[in-house]
Amino acid sequence: MSLKFEVLKKTGKTRLGKLHTKHGTIDTPAFMPVGTAGTVKAMMPESVASTGAQILLGNTYHLMLRPGADLVEKMGGLHKFMNWDKPILTDSGGFQVMSLSGLRKLTEEGVTFKSHVDGKKFFLTPEKSMEIQHKLDSNITMCLDECTPYPATYTQAQDSMKMSMRWAKRSKEAFVDREGYGLFGIQQGNVFEDLRQESADKLREIGFDGYAIGGLAVGEGQEEMFKVLDYAPSMLPEDKPRYLMGVGRPDDIVGAVLRGVDMFDCVMPTRSGRTAQAFTKYGTVNIRNARHREDHRPLAEGCSCPLCQNYSRAYLHHLQKCNEVLAIMLLTWHNIQYYQDLMKGLRNAIQEDKLQAFADEFYANQAKGDIDPL
Amino acid sequence: MSLKFEVLKKTGKTRLGKLHTKHGTIDTPAFMPVGTAGTVKAMMPESVASTGAQILLGNTYHLMLRPGADLVEKMGGLHKFMNWDKPILTDSGGFQVMSLSGLRKLTEEGVTFKSHVDGKKFFLTPEKSMEIQHKLDSNITMCLDECTPYPATYTQAQDSMKMSMRWAKRSKEAFVDREGYGLFGIQQGNVFEDLRQESADKLREIGFDGYAIGGLAVGEGQEEMFKVLDYAPSMLPEDKPRYLMGVGRPDDIVGAVLRGVDMFDCVMPTRSGRTAQAFTKYGTVNIRNARHREDHRPLAEGCSCPLCQNYSRAYLHHLQKCNEVLAIMLLTWHNIQYYQDLMKGLRNAIQEDKLQAFADEFYANQAKGDIDPL
């Protein structure tokens, strides 16, 4: 166990924590911007850091294809390669193999797939995934698992979870323990409570630095996801961080924090930055809408990002209409800032024993559903 | 005359100068990055300023189509709209009407054209161009002229130049003089020395704050251009800035500075930043080339841009191969930095009476033609 996690405070199921790694400390609850191919799309890493982000997620699948783990290792690891000196978490590659690559074949040994870039064949196993993430110098390595498709029958979910647990054991055995680096197990079991419990017990038996809740946000919807989150986090050890993979929208995150989750990642803020969708306290807004054409106001009052500090909605609208790169740069920055401010707000609220009031106000504002509520 | 220009020093035909505007001073010789539609593509304005750029060029044609001059005026002018508080020069719109728009019809009164964006019809006259540039709040307004096509017969060049001179007079009459703002005339006459002289005499008679050399860099090649620049700049007033429009490559600029030109603009550094072309002291290099794949070194030793300070060639190569936005952001920044450093080098060399030695070394390095000369 080589990552230290402190729980500073508890409110209901929610925890305020600090996760210590070789490259720095992460205040939890935390949101990790996604830096798929060694870059948070359209942002300089110093800009990402300026939003308050303390950890990035890198995608093992993308990085193993381009530029390759050996090259990243040769270049001094992912931190140095991409000029990000804070912590990095890498996923195992398994999820993207399922969602992006072609011609997959899954066996007990591992998964064979063809690269979506050039069709080249790869064979990924738990051991291989550990080796790649080691070469990337990832602070938080994720076990290779199978993300069970949704919907799945009980038997499918059970078989898939059991194999993931066998892979978790192999991942643990292959992982090279170092001070300031850690390995997270991933709970599976789909929407079946007894399978989630069985998975949690198995992971606890193997022992990890942190525990992810996998197989959610794959199409089941928020209601179904929250049902699982009502019981799943508390099945996992109290003294370790809990990470809900690939989640999510701001209201997903607030709901999950209330249910005891500590860490999140999602492409939503960056992807939305490339499709003119802005996150605001009153919900999302499409900046291409003609109502913004002559609007002097900043996108969001009180936001500290450069877009809101220095530009009008009219200017952003203009950039979007002209498909200017600066539109993507500014809006991505704003969206990441929004997510980080939300996490900071949550952490402050826990600290000040005002979490429920914070959440109530958050949901009331989101329900207004318009950037300029009446 | 509402722009003050100081010639601080002369070396041969070359001048070291300062041009004072309401929004700040421009050290000449100067290169103006192009901010076509109210943004230097893929750069934050503070990043542009950090390279040493003291003035930007905005394109009247693009801005009159989107978002429209009235809107920019309503938003407080182009400086405020795009968050650039230093000087701005706008072209007249004439050149882009010829190169980008559809269905043009040129008469003595003006030019009718169809927008390349939505096919909407516009009628641009010298008076209209002055009005638009006034609304944009441009510090340096350019007269509307016809950029004579190349090649042209003597008679074509003569007729075109004469009409441009009549338009120059109309531009002057329509221009609203204000302190810290100025109007530049544009010399035409193609490659014919007597026509260039006639044009210069006519412009001098009308009287402007500065004088551009127009109708070059339109396909005639560097040799032909330098032949014109051997005589054209000295036909223009000694005490006013001379601006070579749309030029150019670094070796064009050094040659033109030696021939007495003070100001330049070109899309080359920004456009190249979007096509993986990097400017270096040893010429251009395509960063997609496989030789950069495992190269630890920065693109250019001694360059102060973030790309060269914080990243390897291997990383930039990787970003380019993945078509990441950050590749465009970093390379554009580097290219603009290269151009500004070149201008600074030229200014320092004039100051220190080492211009010829500077130019000799510059051309010797460029002749090596490889980023890693033997």
Describe the structure using short key phrases.
homodimer, 374 residues, alpha/beta, TIM Barrel, 8-stranded parallel β-sheet, 3-stranded antiparallel β-sheet, 41% helix, globular
Task: Describe, in plain words, how this protein is organized in 3D.
2 copies of one chain form a homodimer. Chain A folds into 2 domains: 23-266, Queuine tRNA-ribosyltransferase-like (TIM Barrel, Alpha-Beta Barrel), CATH 3.20.20.105; 276-368, no CATH class. Chain A has 15 helices and 16 strands. In chain A, strands 4-14-13-12-11-10-6-5 form an 8-stranded parallel beta sheet. A 3-stranded antiparallel beta sheet of chain A has the order 1-2-3. In chain A, strands 7-8-9 form a 3-stranded antiparallel beta sheet. Chain A is globular. By secondary structure, chain A is of the alpha/beta class. The interface between A and B is medium-sized, with 34 and 34 residues.
Give a concise summary.
Two copies of one chain form a homodimer. The first copy, chain A, is α/β, with parallel strands linked by helices.
Oligomer: homodimer
- The general outline of chain A is globular
SS-based structural class of chain A?
A: alpha/beta
- Cα-based radius of gyration of chain A, to the nearest Å: 20 Å
**Order of strands in the sheet with the most strands of chain A?**
4-14-13-12-11-10-6-5
Question: What is the highest CATH level, the class of the largest domain in chain A?
Answer: Alpha Beta
DSSP strand tally of chain A: 16
User: What is the third-level CATH name, the topology of the largest domain in chain A?
Assistant: TIM Barrel
Largest interface: A-B, 34 and 34 residues
Helix content of chain A: 40-55%
What do we call the CATH homologous superfamily of the largest domain in chain A? Queuine tRNA-ribosyltransferase-like
Number of separate structural domains of chain A: 2
Low-confidence stretches of chain A: none
Distance separating the two termini of chain A: 52 Å
